[in-house]
Design goal:
heterodimer, A: 579 residues, alpha/beta, ABC transporter transmembrane region fold, Rossmann fold, 2 domains, 10 strands, 64% helix, 9% strand, B: 583 residues, 3 domains, six-stranded mixed beta sheet, four-stranded antiparallel beta sheet, 21 helices, 63% helix, elongated
Chain lengths: 579, 583
């Protein structure tokens, strides 16, 4: 229960006043509710005396009616006092989880599938509302109901009250046995739901491939396997719940039997009045509601416990931020970048993706990175951008270890345009500017060679793109990402194979623009087309995560190797073209 | 809006075929329900007899006998209720699993044009939360209402039998109760719709920003993102707090009314309504009956909300299942291995858009390689999409060995044409599954294709054919994904292959090696290469140059270079200045 207590302390305690007032109202409600049967008993007993008791019966009835009306008001208040903080807590938890996800580094978030993270924000964070609202109310209500009815029962007849406690205790014991099972089943169900939704999501996203290969039946079979596993678990849950649900009300019903069997004779001998017997029954009946609710609440607490665990996995994992608490300021101008013996392994992988990489790039210089597929080019950029933190001291920016620099400041100072870029469901302009100033948008669009495409869109730069909007082609998406990157005046600019999305002429224009920017940012270009790198101050040739060669364009052409081969191949194509 | 949508009843009615498949379960539930009701109704009756005939007369043996009868009724009633719940859950769960299977299978068969209009998140909701909401209703709402109605009827019947006048007086409370409950419910329903809208806006936003998290982080957009999130969160929070009030009030009113009923009962007993004094046993029985009556009534309002939610879900589910936007296939088979393709006056427009293909004609002989080149938006990728029937509804003719494409069976087409797509899709699972996609292809063929596509080092890193590919191919780079995609198509051994920018993110040396290796393999196949990079197309038997939906030039590389037309221009723009480029 430690997760639950932590949650209570962290989120519910600030609302202690609400809960205290709510608890007061609930006790009042329950007190009235158990008082009503006493007046009913009084009325019945008065009626049993014949016409003489008529007035007493009438005034009892009046009290019952008035109490009934009062209880409406107080009960409403009690529910509001519990449910409102429940909603407020829900909103706080959602905010905290989402903010925490935004703050976590990819190195931490890689452990979760995207769909899974989303479900933690939407489902699990919603679940805690039930804990902070409904379940809290239920627990307080049951405790109040049990205590108050119990004490009334004891007042009427201690022996009968003791007897009545037995079936209730019995049903609680049975429930405890099933609780562990229910926890296991609930967790399995949550996991399988997640898997089902992942399976559906990925196949919908890949429907083009599935249809082109006629792979529908294979995917249906895969899905059905999970679907059937899900069925198995929910049927288990049905078995447990069948016992679970009615068992507490069964306890209450058994009580009526006990009351008749043992209380009835007492009423005959006169030890107990008939009115008291009926009052006792009313009290027992009153318990049915809270008891039935209790079994629901048990299940709920188990379920929210699982959700809380899932939330803590996001909330309580420390931020992977070695720069804190004492970050160095980011560079104010285009910095020199020095990399020394950089070896990097993705979290969870066994072999390194980058091995012993060293180079040094002067301030405002341009680094070219080339290499075959899977050689680590993208990883190098990610590590430079600190999407993944490099080992300490492997990368120095103007002499300062990149890990020591304030991460937010560093991200502000540099711009990385990734190879595959996500477009949000907003206008194209919003996607490019991301909240930045609108001035110069047209120039940006032209610079990223996106102007022809924009002209063809129904509403120009205001056209909705993303999932709910116009579908852009791969090249258009890449050029939008390029415009997004160029919109930000960084002191370091990194482009990951973005230039392959534009034709050669545009590429040359872009390279020229980048070179003529003043002040010129320190630039890192990953490219397949070597022509883009001719002016680079340094070119790294990566293969298998290592630098297998480095130098300027001219130096690399002068010796054998991947670079020269690629160049010759690219040249040959052209030569063949003209030949 | 509510008026135009189908009624809850008609929606549930449509579940008929599913329910019939699991009829035994529902039948058991329906049989157990009246039994459980009868036993519940019998309990207060036994109570009345116990008080009036035995306690008040001092008959202890009779009382004990009745008490045991009561226990019997309780236990058998419990068994009946348990059986009812169990059968119902079994039936309902089997039903929703079947519905989920059908929704999924149906969605996978829908044409691409449909997917273009629907965000995947929406389609995902159909197969997840909508189906879940249905399950919730089937177990907790729709069918238990049968039990509730039976119970209310049974209890009222018994009450009438005991004392019709008293029951009538108690029922007077019904109309004002109904009016109040209805008012509150109407208020709740509007709020409920607003809560749902606010929540789905919030979830959609979170889902998008988390999916594009690297952009948010790289461009320091966290503050703005969190601000937007909080804004949506605030709307959701405030609406839910409003709905809480009405919810609480409804609950409390129903609760409080049971006390008022008891007061009425006492007044009646005291002869206020002109009746004679009633027996204590009857009063006890009525108190029991009233508490049994109010429980289903109190839950009824909650169950109605559940049913409303399920009706909304069902409407969406059937809306999807009623969408028959499948790509139409025919019933003809290709007589042998695919020989030739003949395209005549081909025109095509995406839904609601202008024509992107405006009358193309070309012919490809068996074993030939045809390249289609042109700028973005010239329509070249559309040709591939039409040939693989990702999109239907073309005008003009596409004949494979003389048979119109639209008349072929899906199977025949899949066996004849393979495609390497621009956007690579990898699925969570083994490397083997990602390459075969369930087709019976042996390992030797797979390994062969892997080797030809230079993906052997990659597959080795992943752990061989049994190695795992993570969700969305997360452990594979963009270029590596293209290698696997290429291998997937080669392994399928179709006589015709369409390469749509197949190696756009692969470095030129690897690309050249793949080309060299696959040249042999593709030699006897018919190949259509779609590319904006000209290096990949120079050796084609025929090059089609597209511009604005038309073929503006055609010929071999040499022929096209000789005339200084569009191709020459394209070539210059790609290879100008200096030797390079083969990507």
């Amino acid at each position: 229960m430690t997760t639950v207590t932590r949650f209570v302390r962290r989120y519910m305690l600030p609302y202690a006043k609400w809960y205290a007032a709510g608890t007061l109202c609930l006790w009042l409600t329950n007190w009235i509710a158990v008082t009503i049967p006493l007046y009913v008993a009084e009325g019945i007993d008065a009626l049993a005396k014949g016409p003489a008791g008529r007035d007493t019966a009438l005034s009892s009835a009046l009290v019952v009616a008035v109490l009934g009306v009062i209880v409406i008001g107080i009960r409403t208040a009690s529910r509001l006092l519990f449910f409102t903080p429940g909603r407020l807590v829900e909103a706080e938890v959602k905010h905290d989880v989402f903010a925490r996800i935004l703050a976590h580094q990819p190195s931490t978030l890689d452990r979760f599938a995207t769909g899974d993270l989303i479900s933690r924000v939407s489902n699990d964070a919603g679940m805690v509302r039930m804990l902070a609202g409904f379940a809290s109310l239920g627990v307080v209500n049951t405790v109040a109901a049990l205590t108050l009815t119990g004490s009334q029962m004891v007042r009427i007849s201690p022996t009968l009250a003791a007897l009545a406690a037995l079936p209730l205790l019995g049903s609680f014991l049975v429930i405890q046995v099933f609780m562990t099972q229910l926890h296991r089943i609930t967790r399995a169900m949550q996991d399988l739901s997640g898997e089902l939704s992942e399976a559906a999501l990925s196949s919908y996203q890949g429907v083009a491939t599935i249809q082109a290969f006629g792979a529908g039946p294979a995917f249906e079979a895969r899905f059905e396997e999970k679907n059937q596993a899900f069925l198995k678990v929910v049927l288990q849950r049905a078995n447990v719940r069948t016992v679970f649900g009615p068992i507490l009300s069964l306890g209450a019903a058994v009580n009526v039997f006990l009351l008749l069997r043992y209380g009835g004779p007492q009423a005959i001998t006169g030890e107990l009045s008939v009115g008291d017997l009926v009052a006792f029954m009313t009290l027992v009946a009153y318990l049915t509601g809270p008891m039935r609710g209790m079994s629901f609440i048990f299940a709920l607490v188990k379920q929210s416990q699982a959700s809380l665990e899932r939330l803590e996995e996001v909330l309580d994992v420390p931020l992977d931020r070695p720069d804190l608490p004492d970050p160095a300021p980011p560079p104010g101008e285009a910095p020199a970048i020095e990399v020394h013996g950089l070896t990097f392994t993705y979290p969870g992988e066994t072999s390194p993706t980058l091995r012993d990489i060293s180079f040094s790039l002067p301030a405002g210089g341009t680094l070219g990175v080339v290499g075959p597929t899977g050689s680590g080019k993208t990883t190098l950029l990610r590590v430079l951008a600190r999407l993944y933190d490099p080992p300490a001291d492997a990368i120095r920016i103007d002499g300062t270890c990149v890990r020591c620099i304030d991460l937010d400041g560093w991200r502000e100072a540099m711009t990385l345009v990734p190879q595959k870029s996500y477009l949000f469901s907003e206008s194209l302009a919003d996607n490019i500017l991301l909240g930045g100033p609108r001035g110069g948008l047209d120039a940006l669009v032209a610079l990223a060679a996106l102007d022809v495409d924009v002209a063809a869109l129904p509403e120009g730069v205001e056209t909705q793109v993303g999932e709910a909007g116009v579908t852009l082609s791969g090249g258009q998406r890449q050029r939008t990402a390029l415009a997004r990157g160029l919109a930000r005046p960084g002191r370091v600019l990194m482009l990951d194979d973005v230039l392959s999305a534009v034709d050669h002429k545009t590429e040359q224009q872009l390279v020229d623009v980048l070179r003529s920017r003043s002040p010129r940012p320190t630039t890192v270009l990953v490219a397949h087309r070597l022509s883009a790198l001719q002016h680079a101050d340094l070119i790294l040739v990566l293969d298998g995560g290592r630098v297998v060669d480095s130098g300027t364009h001219a130096e690399l052409l002068a010796r054998d190797g991947i670079y020269r081969d690629t160049w010759l191949h690219q040249t040959e194509s052209e030569g063949g073209g003209h030949g | 809006m509510a008026e135009s949508s189908p009624s809850v009843g008609s929606l549930l009615w449509r579940l008929g075929p599913y329910v019939r498949a699991d009829a035994p379960y529902y039948l058991v539930a329906l049989l157990a329900a009246p039994a459980s009701t009868a036993l519940v109704v019998a309990q207060p009756w036994l109570l009345k007899r116990a008080i009036d005939e035995h306690i008040l007369t001092g008959d202890v043996p009779g009382l004990v006998w009745i008490a045991w009868l009561y226990l019997g009724a309780v236990l058998v009633g419990f068994a009946a209720e348990a059986l009812y719940m169990l059968a119902l859950s079994y039936g309902a769960m089997r039903t929703i699993v079947a519905v989920r299977r059908d929704v999924y299978a149906h969605t996978l068969r829908l044409e691409r044009a449909y997917f273009d209009k629907q965000p995947t998140g929406k389609l995902l909701t159909r197969v997840t939360s909508d189906v879940d909401a249905l399950g919730e209703t089937l177990t907790a709402g729709a069918v238990t209402i049968v039990l509730d109605v039976l119970l209310v009827m049974g209890v009222l019947g018994a009450m009438f039998a005991f004392d019709a006048k008293l029951t009538g007086i108690l029922l007077l409370i019904g109309p004002p109760l109904a009016i109040v409950v209805n008012l509150v419910r109407a208020r709740l329903r509007t709020l409920f719709v607003r809560v749902r809208t606010a929540l789905s806006a919030l979830n959609a936003y979170a889902s998008e920003r988390i999916t594009g998290l690297d952009v948010v982080q790289l461009y320091r957009d966290e503050a703005r993102t969190l601000e937007s999130f909080d804004e949506k969160l605030g709307v959701y929070r405030d609406t839910t707090i409003q709905s809480n009030f009405w919810d609480a009030l409804l609950f409390a009113i129903v609760d409080g009314l049971s006390s008022i009923c008891m007061a009425l009962l006492l007044w009646y007993g005291a002869g206020v309504f002109g009746a004679s004094i009633v027996s204590a046993g009857l009063l006890a029985a009525f108190i029991e009956y009233i508490s049994r009556l109010f429980e289903p009534i109190r839950e009824f309002s909650q169950k109605l909300a559940v049913i409303q939610r399920a009706a909304a879900a069902l409407e969406k589910i059937f809306g999807l299942l009623d969408t028959h936007a499948f790509v139409p296939f025919g019933d003809r088979e290709l007589p042998g291995e695919l020989g030739s393709i003949e395209v005549t006056d081909l025109a095509f427009a995406y839904e609601g858009g202008p024509d992107v293909l405006k009358g193309l004609s070309f012919a490809v002989r068996s074993g030939q390689t045809v390249a289609v080149v042109g700028r973005t938006g010239s329509g070249k990728s559309t040709i591939g999409r039409l040939l693989t029937r990702a999109y239907a509804g073309y005008r003009g003719a596409i004949r494979l060995d003389g048979i119109e494409l639209s008349e072929l069976t899906a199977d025949s087409l899949r066996r004849s044409i393979g495609v390497v797509q621009q956007d690579v899709q990898l699925f969570k699972g083994t490397v083997r599954f990602n390459l075969t996609l369930g087709a019976p292809i042996d390992d030797a063929t797979l390994l062969d294709a892997i080797r030809l596509c230079r993906a052997d080092a990659l597959v080795e890193r992943l752990g061989g054919l049994d190695g795992r590919i993570e969700h969305q191919g997360r452990n594979v780079s963009v270029g590596e994904g293209q290698l696997l995609s290429f291998a997937r198509t080669l392994a399928a051994h179709t006589p015709m292959v369409i390469l749509d920018e197949a190696t756009a993110n692969v470095d030129s040396l690897t690309e050249a090696r793949i080309q060299a290796a696959t040249d042999v393999l593709l030699e006897r196949r018919t190949v259509i290469v779609i590319a904006h990079r000209l290096s990949t197309v120079m050796r084609a038997d025929q090059i089609l140059v597209m511009d604005a939906g038309r073929i503006v030039e055609r010929g071999t590389h040499a022929e096209l270079m000789a005339s200084s037309g569009v191709y020459h221009g394209l070539f210059e723009s790609q290879f100008v200045e200096r030797p390079e480029d083969t990507e």
